[in-house]
Amino acid sequence: xxxxxxxxxxxxxxxxxxxxxxxxxxxxxxxxxxxxxxxxxxxxxxxxxxxxxxxxxxxxxxxxxxxxxxxxxxxxxxxxxxxxxxxxxxxxxxxxxxxxxxxxxxxxxxxxxxxxxxxxxxxxxxxxxxxxxxxxxxxxxxxxxxxxxxxxxxxxxxxxxxxxxxxxxxxxxxxxxxxxxxxxxxxxxxxxxxxxxxxxxxxxxxxxxxxxxxxxxxxxxxxxxxxxxxxxxxxxxxxxxxxxxxxxxxxxxxxxxxxxxx
Length: 262
Ligand SMILES: O=C(O)CCC(=O)C(=O)O
Prior knowledge:
Layout: H1 24-33, E1 35-38, H2 44-66, E2 72-73, E3 76-77, E4 81-85, H3 92-98, H4 101-110, E5 115-125, E6 133-136, H5 138-141, E7 143-145, E8 150-155, E9 166-168, E10 181-183, E11 186-188, E12 197-198, E13 206-210, E14 215-217, E15 226-235, E16 239-241, E17 247-249, E18 258-259
Antiparallel strand pairs: 1-13, 2-3, 4-5, 5-15, 5-18, 6-14, 7-16, 8-13, 8-15, 9-12, 9-14, 10-11, 16-17
The structure holds 2-oxoglutaric acid.
């Protein structure tokens, strides 16, 4: 397991109280294992509104993907897996959802005050997709500093072992950003790590993990699309280092706005 070239002196910063939503056990699990499951925080109506907002944009994106050679671009593939990004720019309902009290509480309890939405995307894993999404850290895709930010993986329908729920490799977040290799299915930082944990989650739950927590999702061997909406939050002042050498503050007002943690 190799560290990312830029990951020189990383130190995991533990969260501290007082907390608004996380139990003592969840805060400890986040710090020690790099993840926890927050159960039953969204109603069926809230999730239906999120799905109704995302579905047409996802369909439109997949139609465009189908016109590309092989129905593919980078890691997205029509009828297999789609990534629909920056949805808050196109939907007031999703913008409001990104500011939901549940997220501002999680941000408060993990990152502390002064954070922004960093990224949002829907990932739809289509029926009968036999391919996994490989082990990676979110900070392995675009190196961002601080390296330690927050991912909230929101299942829009139940995420199970059969349809491609997340798996995590507990504890490795404390090593900082790992070296990732490009594979046909995405960037990969671990091949077949030992001691991994599946995190099945029901619609209404949130799988909370760090940008540094290695995770994957399994194949979807069912007849239904597995739908997730992923919201990431980073400390104000976070800097994104692009692969082409440019660096920029993550403060696009249209999609990287402050989250009120007061
Ligand atoms: O939802 C998925 O299947 C994978 C998404 C993921 O791990 C990511 O976008 O970082």
